[in-house]
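Look at one such:
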Amino acid sequence: MKSRLITLLFIPLFVFAQQWVQAQIPQVPSQIEFADLIVRITPQAQREIQLDVDALYRNPTYFKIKQDRVNLFMPIVERELRKQGVPDDLKYLVIQESGLISDAVSTSNAVGFWQFKQGTAEEVGLRVDNQVDERKSIISSTRGAALYLKKHNNALDNWMTALVSYQMGLGGAKAYFGNQFAGKKSIEVDRNTHWYFKKYLAHKIAYQNQIGVFASSTQRLAEVQVQGPVTMAALAKRYGVSEDHLKEYNKWAANGKIPSGTFTLFYIKEGSLPVEPAIFKTEEKPTQNKASQSVTAKSSPTYKQANSFPRISGNTTKSSQPNQITVNDLEGVQAPKTMSPSKFADEIGMKEKKFRKLNDLPADERVEIGNYYYTEKKKTSAEVETHVVQPGESLWSISQKYGIRLAALKSKNRIRRDSELKAGMVLNLRETRKRGEEIPVVPVVNTPTPPRTVVAQSEPIQQETPQVQPNNQPSLKNQSEKIYHTVSQGETLFAISRKYGITVDELKQWNNIGSQNIITIGQKLVILRP
């Protein structure tokens, strides 16, 4: 009797769910906008697409689960497409490709949110190795997909054919479509239209009115920048979630471990949460004390140093090549050696004048090995509020570190020359300092920087002949004063030797530096002065 009663209660609920789904199913219109196109759909194509829309709504439970997943990741997809200048409508393609399952794998071994094969992933700057698979990162994979789609649209001059090329490749799309749609702003979808585009239209119609409508929760995806190497267990304690939770939402990290470098970590929070990097946010404005502008770091949590900048992502194994990495979410490259800006600009396929302008490089400045340079315009403000000036930094080096234009940095702080900088100064990176407001100064604590090995390039104008000295010490320096120099990011043996008025060979001999010229950031070098 009890079992029969439960069955009788279940039937109305099932019928109600079916009726709810039926009422919710959107109908395929005869005309729809897509990207910059007007798409007219013939009655036969309408019926064909409607079958796919109906199929997406057929299982109410599955649809609700998928709807929540769409709403969880879609704000990030929209943001990354917007950054690359790709139409917002292309966001529905990620639903079609993977259902927003991070580790989805196709029968052809395409992986991740946007279903990249390894070769194609590496072409668009994604890192795929035994430590990191960025195809499973919603940020990196969306950026890669956006670059891929934008490149194909530039060649095909039509977003519909560019979208189909995502399935068949650029060569396949050119062979299939020819030039019939190039430059067109209106197209007709009929029974002969490529199935992949009709499948896309079904997903767009099915989900365009569901984004932002949460089926079962108000969860939001939090993003934080973390510095590796670090384990998921340690990060779980830091963010108050379980280790399994972090592994579930960060499948891009192989074996649940974050390797060396800076990465974006994802985890779920309940309630309203802005979907943007949350680390380094300040909780209060710095209070000005006119009696004393020098304050302690402990009493000023706002002045937290952002040590993870510049933020590098993409295919770091090819960082010296264009279109492989981003620096602070901007297209950039890393200098493989010290050279002139004209030579470097030529190597990356850019005019020297434009390269100098994008990087605020003065005429006499050289490109230094290991430094990151931008290949698109820097921003007018940084992601973090402030920067505490460190010894040896310049306005230019700070502007490059955060991807902020040099003129904007100077303007925000009403400071014009490097000679006005002082270690401990708290520079504004977002808000413009009020007129007459003094720049606060905090004590600078020399925190150890994790060593990162770089190859130091020495490029003296004239070739120097190594001088062999007994016991690796120059005989004329026996009575010299010994001082120490701490290697900073981007410094070379040649730059350091020029700073102290010594030769590269002397510097190498005093510090037992081999023929590979390897030094590390944070390394203390001995300098001998008479």
Remarks:
- Residues 111 and 434 are 51 Å apart (CA to CA).
